[in-house]
Amino acid sequence: MVSLKTIAFGFLLAQGALAKVLPRHVQTRTSGGARELTNAERFARGLPPKKVSRLFNATATHAAPAKRSGLGNVGYIQAIPSAGGASMYAYLSGSNFQLTTDSSQATQFTWAVAGNEVPIYFADGAEYMCTQHWSGPDNGQYNMESGAPAASVVFGGCPLSDGPQTTTDAHTASYQLPSWDIPSFPPDRLFMDFFNYDGTTTYNMFFFSFDSAGTTGLLGSAISIAGFANAQNVQRVTLMLLDALP
């Protein structure tokens, strides 16, 4: 079983992870105002998920910025149910990634280098695959740590205008971009990091497939199944980064 490791503020990681210092960041959420609904609450009320600054448009053409000219790694994300069953593949539907057993629908992803805290792109490098808050505490201080309520996230698409994002900025952002631990030689396991509001980082949390308000096969992550307590058909999955579809 993959262990959960939370690294405190200011602790320097040794070999196997990037060295980093994670200072606290000023929260920009306006105090005293009406609390913004989480994506979980929006789905439960029959509302669409919160909009990113610009939704992915599959029919639009995108000029490749020079800063992405080095992206040469291409692959796909496969989800293997822990309880057994057919493998699934991540594809973008609207503004969220869902899972399907039809590999022909799989979204093609790209990334620059193997290593920790790396962003993943799709749509020929024109969009980020990002985490968006699914559920968490009312105060908006999202931490994937033991205790109630722990944050959970759902995966969606974010435009290039949302990045680049440093790990310091990710701690208090409503979306996170440099989340992925990319294996050197796909096909291999795919892991992610979550940058907690309190300045720590949670590693190797679990991935889940779940249904909510009529939307099936959503892809999310949390430290336990309790992060999707109000969802249906929740199951743990293992993510694999593939270099080619089977």
CATH architecture: Trefoil
* Overall CATH class: Mainly Beta
β-strand amount: 35-45%
Mean pLDDT: 77
Structural class: mainly beta
| Separation, N- and C-terminal Cα atoms | 26 Å
Uncertain parts: 1-35, 51-70
Rg over alpha carbons: 17 Å
Major beta sheet summary? 8 strands, antiparallel, barrel
Count of structural domains: 1
Write a brief structural summary.
The chain is mainly beta. It has helices at residues 39-44, 167-170; strands at 5-7, 73-81, 88-93, 96-100, 109-111, 115-118, 120-122, 127-135, 152-159, 175-176, 180-182, 188-189, 191-195, 201-203, 206-212, 215-222, 232-242.
Please tag this protein with its features.
246 residues; eight-stranded antiparallel beta barrel; five-stranded antiparallel beta sheet; globular; signal
Detailed description of the structure:
- Residues 1-19 form the signal peptide.
- Keywords: Signal.
- By secondary structure, this protein is mainly beta.
- It has a single domain (38-55, 71-242), classed as Trefoil (Acidic Fibroblast Growth Factor, subunit A) (Trefoil), CATH 2.80.10.
- The chain contains two helices and 17 strands.
- Strands 2-5-7-8-9-16-15-17 form an eight-stranded antiparallel β-barrel. A five-stranded antiparallel sheet has the order 1-14-13-11-6.
- The protein is globular, with a radius of gyration of 17 Å.
- The two termini are 26 Å apart.
- Residues 1-35 and 51-70 have low confidence and may be disordered.
